[in-house]
Amino acid sequence: QVPLVESGGGLVQPGGSLRLSCVASGRTFSDFPMGWYRQSSSQQRELIAQIASGGSTTYVDSVKGRFTISRDDAKMTVYLQMNSLKPEDTAVYYCNVASALRPSWARWGQGTQVTVSS
Predict the structure, then answer these.
(1) End-to-end CA separation in angstroms for the chain
(2) Helices then strands (H, E): number in the chain?
(3) Which long-range contacts (CB under 8 A, 24 or more apart) does 49-58 make?
(4) What's the CA gap between 7 and 9, in Å, rounded?
(5) How far is CA 51 from the centre of its chain?
(6) Can you tell me the distance from the alpha carbon of 74 to that of 17, in angstroms, rounded to the nearest whole number?
(7) pLDDT higher than 90, residue 2
(8) What is the pLDDT of residues 71-113, one digit of tens each?
(9) Please, are residues 106 and 26 in contact by the beta-carbon 8 Å criterion?
Protein backbone atom coordinates (compact mmCIF):
# COMPACT_ATOMS: atom_id res chain seq x y z
CA GLN A 1 0.00 0.00 0.00
CA VAL A 2 1.20 3.48 -0.83
CA PRO A 3 1.51 5.74 2.23
CA LEU A 4 -0.53 8.89 2.52
CA VAL A 5 1.10 11.74 0.58
CA GLU A 6 1.01 15.25 2.00
CA SER A 7 1.95 18.40 0.08
CA GLY A 8 1.55 22.16 0.13
CA GLY A 9 3.80 23.16 2.99
CA GLY A 10 6.43 25.86 2.86
CA LEU A 11 7.76 29.04 4.39
CA VAL A 12 5.20 31.78 5.02
CA GLN A 13 5.17 35.03 6.94
CA PRO A 14 2.98 35.48 10.01
CA GLY A 15 -0.56 36.26 8.92
CA GLY A 16 -0.14 34.37 5.68
CA SER A 17 -2.01 31.37 4.30
CA LEU A 18 -1.25 27.90 3.01
CA ARG A 19 -3.37 25.08 1.68
CA LEU A 20 -2.26 21.55 2.42
CA SER A 21 -3.36 18.48 0.48
CA CYS A 22 -3.23 14.81 1.34
CA VAL A 23 -3.89 12.02 -1.14
CA ALA A 24 -4.83 8.52 -0.04
CA SER A 25 -4.79 5.28 -1.99
CA GLY A 26 -7.56 3.36 -0.26
CA ARG A 27 -10.85 2.72 -2.01
CA THR A 28 -12.57 2.80 1.38
CA PHE A 29 -11.42 6.39 1.93
CA SER A 30 -14.96 7.76 2.05
CA ASP A 31 -15.88 5.40 4.91
CA PHE A 32 -13.42 6.88 7.39
CA PRO A 33 -13.01 10.11 9.33
CA MET A 34 -9.84 11.90 8.26
CA GLY A 35 -7.65 14.19 10.27
CA TRP A 36 -4.73 16.54 10.07
CA TYR A 37 -2.02 16.14 12.68
CA ARG A 38 1.05 18.20 13.41
CA GLN A 39 4.29 17.62 15.24
CA SER A 40 6.78 20.27 16.23
CA SER A 41 10.28 19.79 17.59
CA SER A 42 9.01 20.36 21.12
CA GLN A 43 5.69 18.53 21.05
CA GLN A 44 4.29 15.14 20.25
CA ARG A 45 2.10 14.62 17.22
CA GLU A 46 -1.37 15.97 17.87
CA LEU A 47 -4.65 15.82 16.02
CA ILE A 48 -5.69 19.38 15.19
CA ALA A 49 -8.59 18.98 12.78
CA GLN A 50 -10.83 16.15 11.69
CA ILE A 51 -13.67 15.61 9.27
CA ALA A 52 -16.17 12.80 9.50
CA SER A 53 -17.30 10.75 6.54
CA GLY A 54 -20.48 12.79 6.61
CA GLY A 55 -18.59 16.08 6.54
CA SER A 56 -18.87 17.33 10.10
CA THR A 57 -15.68 18.94 11.38
CA THR A 58 -13.87 19.36 14.69
CA TYR A 59 -10.88 21.53 15.58
CA VAL A 60 -8.64 22.08 18.53
CA ASP A 61 -8.97 25.50 20.10
CA SER A 62 -5.57 26.70 18.90
CA VAL A 63 -6.62 26.53 15.22
CA LYS A 64 -10.36 27.08 15.48
CA GLY A 65 -11.49 29.96 13.27
CA ARG A 66 -8.23 29.97 11.31
CA PHE A 67 -7.99 26.49 9.77
CA THR A 68 -10.58 24.69 7.64
CA ILE A 69 -10.53 20.99 6.85
CA SER A 70 -12.35 19.58 3.84
CA ARG A 71 -12.41 16.41 1.79
CA ASP A 72 -13.05 15.27 -1.76
CA ASP A 73 -13.95 11.59 -1.63
CA ALA A 74 -13.89 11.20 -5.41
CA LYS A 75 -10.24 12.26 -5.38
CA MET A 76 -9.50 10.51 -2.07
CA THR A 77 -8.02 13.78 -0.88
CA VAL A 78 -8.29 15.79 2.29
CA TYR A 79 -7.34 19.46 2.50
CA LEU A 80 -6.36 21.90 5.20
CA GLN A 81 -6.77 25.59 4.49
CA MET A 82 -4.66 27.54 6.97
CA ASN A 83 -5.18 31.27 7.37
CA SER A 84 -3.76 33.86 9.78
CA LEU A 85 -0.76 31.66 10.39
CA LYS A 86 1.31 32.18 13.51
CA PRO A 87 4.91 31.19 14.36
CA GLU A 88 3.54 28.59 16.78
CA ASP A 89 1.92 26.82 13.81
CA THR A 90 5.40 25.82 12.64
CA ALA A 91 5.48 22.03 12.49
CA VAL A 92 5.44 19.02 10.23
CA TYR A 93 1.86 18.35 9.17
CA TYR A 94 0.51 14.86 8.53
CA CYS A 95 -2.85 13.43 7.61
CA ASN A 96 -4.33 10.09 8.53
CA VAL A 97 -7.52 8.37 9.49
CA ALA A 98 -8.81 10.02 12.66
CA SER A 99 -9.65 6.79 14.39
CA ALA A 100 -7.86 4.26 16.56
CA LEU A 101 -8.88 1.59 14.06
CA ARG A 102 -7.15 2.26 10.76
CA PRO A 103 -7.35 0.37 7.47
CA SER A 104 -4.24 -1.04 5.84
CA TRP A 105 -3.93 1.87 3.40
CA ALA A 106 -3.69 4.43 6.24
CA ARG A 107 0.07 4.43 6.49
CA TRP A 108 1.78 7.54 7.81
CA GLY A 109 3.47 9.57 5.11
CA GLN A 110 6.49 11.83 5.42
CA GLY A 111 4.41 14.91 6.16
CA THR A 112 4.87 18.42 4.86
CA GLN A 113 6.86 21.10 6.66
CA VAL A 114 5.15 24.38 7.50
CA THR A 115 7.37 27.18 8.74
CA VAL A 116 5.87 30.50 9.82
CA SER A 117 8.53 33.13 10.18
CA SER A 118 9.32 36.69 9.20
Answers:
(1) 39
(2) 0, 10
(3) 49/80, 50/98, 51/78, 51/98
(4) 6
(5) 10
(6) 25
(7) no
(8) 999 999 999 999 999 999 999 999 999 998 999 999 999 999 9
(9) yes
